[in-house]
TrEMBL record:
<dbReference type="InterPro" id="IPR043151">
    <property type="entry name" value="BAH_sf"/>
</dbReference>
<dbReference type="InterPro" id="IPR001025">
    <property type="entry name" value="BAH_dom"/>
</dbReference>
<keyword id="KW-0862">Zinc</keyword>
<dbReference type="InterPro" id="IPR013083">
    <property type="entry name" value="Znf_RING/FYVE/PHD"/>
</dbReference>
<dbReference type="InterPro" id="IPR001965">
    <property type="entry name" value="Znf_PHD"/>
</dbReference>
<dbReference type="Pfam" id="PF04136">
    <property type="entry name" value="COG3_N"/>
</dbReference>
<dbReference type="GO" id="GO:0008270">
    <property type="term" value="F:zinc ion binding"/>
</dbReference>
<feature type="domain" description="BAH">
    <location>
        <begin position="1"/>
        <end position="67"/>
    </location>
</feature>
<dbReference type="Pfam" id="PF01426">
    <property type="entry name" value="BAH"/>
</dbReference>
<dbReference type="InterPro" id="IPR048320">
    <property type="entry name" value="COG3_N"/>
</dbReference>
<dbReference type="GO" id="GO:0003682">
    <property type="term" value="F:chromatin binding"/>
</dbReference>
<protein>
    <recommendedName>
        <fullName>BAH domain-containing protein</fullName>
    </recommendedName>
</protein>
<dbReference type="InterPro" id="IPR011011">
    <property type="entry name" value="Znf_FYVE_PHD"/>
</dbReference>
<keyword id="KW-0479">Metal-binding</keyword>
<keyword id="KW-0863">Zinc-finger</keyword>
Amino acid sequence: MGGRRQFHGAKELFLSDHFDVQSAHTIEGKCTVHSFKNYTKLENVGTDDYFCRFEYKAATGAFTPDRVAVYCKCEMPYNPDDLMVQCECCKDWFQPSCMGMTIEEAKKLDHFLCSDCIAEEDPKRASNSSSVSHLADGKTEEKYRHYVDTLTQRIQTCDLILRQVDDTLELFNELQLQHQVVATKTKTLCDACDSLLMEKQRLIEFADTLRIVQFYGRIYAR
């Protein structure tokens, strides 16, 4: 069956192939229709902000696309108008109501692990535990510390690579300076060679002049 479904947001509109004629007096104002991706990036959703991610076929009541990614245990598509919490372990998103929490309780959470991730840590604890996991509890705290340690190691690795990059750039700058010095000395040598060539040419011309004078001097001596 077509039509609006549970996961459709309160501010979700549908691009439709249906056309109708309405009186201008029924128009209350303008609104801004964002793409689904841009709507989820809005820091503050105004009263005039709406979004669209489906095309609705009025004749068949079908939506395009007919498949979207699903989340939570209820396996419903993401509704950006409803609060969802992310599991720190599996990174999946969950609706508070499906996790046995109220929205107010979910907003107060500093950390959250879903029941499946808790079950992987401690199967006996999973049957009686709620979805809310405080990091002071045994293996959850240990897993969180491991998570933090892993992040710390990655940060240290990044810092090491950055230092190596800085060293490489410093060496490159030194090579550039050396190249500039060599280029300057090379230019000086080239200028000196040019001067020597000019002096050589003058000496050749002077020697030729002396030879001519010597030749005529011998003729007059006879």
